[in-house]
Design goal:
This protein has 3 domains: about 5-150, Rossmann fold (3-Layer(aba) Sandwich); about 155-230, no CATH class; about 235-330. With about 325 residues, the protein is of the alpha/beta class. The longest helix is centred in the C-terminal third of the chain and has 15 residues, at about 220-230. The chain has helices spanning about 5-15, 30-45, 55-60, 95-110, 140-145, 155-165, 170-180, 195-205, 215, 220-230, 235-240, 255-265, 270-285, 285-300, 305-315, 315-330; strands at about 20-25, 45-50, 65, 70-75, 85-90, 110, 115, 120-125, 150. The protein has a 5-stranded parallel sheet with strand order 2-5-8-1-9, covered by helices on one side. Strands 3-4 form a two-stranded antiparallel ribbon. Strands 6-7 form a two-stranded antiparallel ribbon. α7 runs antiparallel to α12 (about 255-265), α12 runs parallel beside α14 (about 285-300) and α13 (about 270-285) packs antiparallel against α14 (about 285-300). It contains 16 helices and 9 strands.
């Protein structure tokens, strides 16, 4: 499933109080850990991230301490004692079998040693697959059979929706719209390769004027550098946003992606968004107008797209277009 679909599924588990242990599978850098953390923040619940590969069995079970001639297990301080939240066991299958065996009791019985997980806590875990060149151990069958297994795969539309809200550099989003295969492309010959995680890091570097090859690799960085030349030949975005443009729509697909994403990202208010929409209706094929409007709605969603919709209603042609394309534009 895509990251967007995974987010919806995990939200369903929270809302319906389904506390069956859940395992997320996927390649490195696809955003598994981030999605779990965002889900916890969305519902205002606790979040504890444990990297089992960095723990010893006694770290999880606790230490035996004599009390009145009887050994009692003193559990670790990092386990939750009250409230509700998500106990996230990251890199579960990178932990050696002895550690997985110790975690098995916590996952299956919600207790380990003398410790018992509070009722309001969910147990979720994540791991990479062998085919992703990850140093992983096989998961014991009894443990695997108790999980809900969810596999997440890279998806550009999910990344773009996140990037529009998170401020990912517009050139990266436009480039990946044109070359979505480079969203996630592992390279066995290089420690740096493109993934959603590394593209977000690249965005920070690009904004600082630094080389992005150390995080996405030389090949992807070179392709982005070549694509940036497209921006030099773009029509005046500011003129379009201010409603003063009389320009044709570009012919090259690369320039079309750059222009459409650039307008969606640079529209500073609903009036500029309307100007961009009006210009695109005049000069662009319908599929590009649909792309622009869907991205504008994503951008405007946090403050509410109502004002934009009201402005569109004032112009019969735009209103008619939006009604005709509503299902495609708004999904």
């Amino acid at each position: 499933m895509s990251p967007t679909e995974l987010t919806k599924y995990l939200s369903g588990l929270i809302e319906h109080r389904i506390q069956t242990a859940t395992m997320l599978w996927g390649p490195p850098g696809v955003g598994k850990s981030s999605i779990v953390a965002q889900t916890a923040r969305k519902y205002g619940i606790g979040f504890i991230d444990l990297r089992l590969s960095q723990l010893a069995p006694t770290d999880l079970r606790g230490l035996p301490v004599p009390v009145d001639g009887v050994s009692r297990w003193y559990p670790p301080e990092f386990l939750p004692w009250e409230g509700e939240g998500i106990l996230f066991l990251d890199e579960l299958n990178m932990a050696p079998p002895t550690m997985q065996g110790m975690a098995q009791q916590l996952i299956l019985d919600r207790k380990v040693g003398s410790y018992e997980l509070p009722e309001g806590w969910f147990v979720w875990a994540a791991g990479n697959r062998k085919e992703d060149r990850a140093a992983v151990f096989d998961m014991p069958a009894p443990l695997a059979n108790r999980f809900i297994h969810l596999e997440v795969t890279p998806d550009f539309e999910s990344f773009k929706a996140y990037g529009l809200q998170a401020g990912i550099h517009e050139r990266i989003l436009a480039f990946l719209a044109f070359r979505p295969a480079l969203l996630h492309q592992m390279d066995a010959r290089s420690p740096a390769w493109p993934s959603p995680r590394s593209w977000e890091m690249a965005s920070h570097l690009l904004k600082a004027g630094l080389d992005i090859a150390p995080v996405v690799g030389e090949a992807a960085a070179a392709e982005l550098a070549a694509y940036e030349q497209v921006y030099e030949a773009l029509p005046g975005l500011e003129e379009i946003l201010e409603g003063r443009a009389h320009l044709p729509f570009p012919e090259e697909p690369s320039a079309r992606y750059a222009l459409t994403l650039g307008l969606a990202l640079r529209a500073a208010n609903t009036r500029q968004a309307l100007n961009a929409f009006r210009w695109m209706v005049e000069v662009a094929p319908s599929e590009w107008v649909q792309l622009l409007v869907s991205d504008l709605y994503r951008r405007l969603r946090p403050q509410g797209p109502g004002e934009f919709a009201l402005l569109v209603q004032e112009e019969p042609r735009l209103r008619a277009y939006l009604e005709e394309q509503r299902e495609l534009v708004l999904g």
